[in-house]
Write a structure and sequence with these properties.
Elements (H helix, E strand, L loop, with lengths): L1 E4 L11 H16 L2 E3 L8 E4 L4 H12 L3 E5 L4 H4 L6 H16 L4 E4 L2 H9 L6 E3 L13 H10 L8 E5 L8 H10 L4 E5 L9 H7 L6 E5 L3 H10 L2 E4 L8 H8 L4 E4 L15 E3 L2 H12 L7 H9 L3 H16 L3 H4 L9
Parallel strand pairs: 1-2, 1-3, 3-4, 4-5, 5-6, 7-8, 7-10, 8-9, 10-11, 11-12
Length: 347
């Protein structure tokens, strides 16, 4: 079989989780030796789509007309579109209708988690849906003291500096307001937020948060994956205060890197991230602050080995094998297998 990983509008999402998911898919197919192309003019058996831009919808319809199978990766939901960019809440109902139209073209929908699968099924989408983690390159994001040293040297951080790290767009949904407030409350910790969003795209209160001047609050912007790996390895903990996710690739990367992880206690993480087992969870600024101090002061037990084990189970090799199975079953229209759960976080 030959797969078309559709590359239209890929540059638009290259610095997002969707862009990283496409990179994971390419890496997984290459490891397995499965033939693929990113040129829609080539011949192919199945097209795999990752974005919900109009060109992807056009590509799906074109493939259907040619008798090709369509796999749509459902990274986006109405819930995670809210509280993102200017006007997103107003546009959310229209966004829901649009993604339903896109997803309706699929012979198979893939969602990163069972939680996301449930959201999309609740919209009324009846296409076969399978939950399959985006995966993580657990070898690349392995613990590395030298990588951590590079991060601390670059940012002139002493060995005893307590570093809290987060990664994401500058959007409210990601919990950036809480991140800034925690930095204000905890001047004895250094707070680093990696990622970038053009300021003209975000509401005023988020721009003000990003422009907050505190000596311990840092927004270095977008960095490549090598520098991000160094940051994971050099930080004391990864804080993920997001309010809504379909999975969170950066969360998997942090777990793979073997640093403590503190997440917001959300329904998506109820089943596969155990509070006090693989991660610690918080619900408020007060519980986040207690969790951060408990981790950095070593008052809480280390969970990093458990986190590493979870990430290893979602390595790109495992995800790639399941993805290949899904392609095969889609090409042969095995509805019984398409409706079965193949791989989700925590399995």
């Amino acid at each position: 079989m030959k797969i078309l990983l559709y590359a239209g509008s890929l540059k638009t999402v290259s610095r997002s989780g969707v862009g990283e998911a496409v990179r994971h898919q390419r890496e997984a197919l290459e490891r397995l030796g499965i033939e693929y192309t990113m040129d829609e003019r080539d011949d192919y058996d199945l097209v795999h789509l990752n974005t919900i831009f109009p060109d992807s919808f056009r590509m799906a319809r074109k493939a259907k007309r040619r008798g090709k199978k369509v796999v749509y990766h459902a990274h986006s939901t109405m819930e995670d579109f809210r509280n993102s960019f200017i006007g997103s809440n107003l546009m959310a109902p229209l966004f829901k209708k649009w993604i339903m139209r896109c997803y309706g073209t699929a012979d198979l929908l893939i969602t990163p988690t069972e939680y996301a699968k449930g959201l999309i099924q609740a919209y009324g989408v009846t296409n076969p849906i399978v939950a399959l983690s985006n995966g993580v390159d657990s070898a690349f994001f392995a613990p590395d003291p030298e990588a951590g040293r590079r991060f601390r040297d670059k940012h002139k951080l002493s060995d005893d500096a307590k570093v809290v790290l987060s990664v994401g767009h500058y959007i409210e949904r990601k919990g950036i307001l809480d991140f800034v407030e925690l930095a204000r409350r905890m001047p004895d910790h250094e707070f680093y937020w990696f990622g970038f969003t053009p300021l003209y795209m975000i509401p005023g209160k988020i721009r003000e948060a990003v422009e907050t001047k505190l000596p311990n609050l840092h927004f270095p912007g977008y960095v490549n994956r090598d520098e991000l790996r160094d940051a994971y390895c050099g930080a004391n903990l990864f804080l993920f205060p997001t309010h809504e996710e379909t999975e969170g690739i950066v969360l998997l990367e942090a777990l793979a890197a073997g640093i403590p992880v503190l997440v917001r206690d959300l329904p998506i993480y109820a089943d596969w991230l155990e509070d006090g087992g693989t991660v610690y969870k918080g619900r408020s600024l007060e519980t986040f602050e207690r969790g951060i101090r408990g981790i950095t002061e070593h008052a809480l037990p280390s969970l990093t080995e458990n986190g590493r084990a979870l990430a290893a189970g979602l390595d790109l090799d495992a995800v790639g094998r399941r993805l290949a199975e899904l392609y095969e079953t889609t090409l042969h229209s095995r509805a019984d297998l398409l409706n079965a759960q193949i791989l989700r976080p925590g399995t």
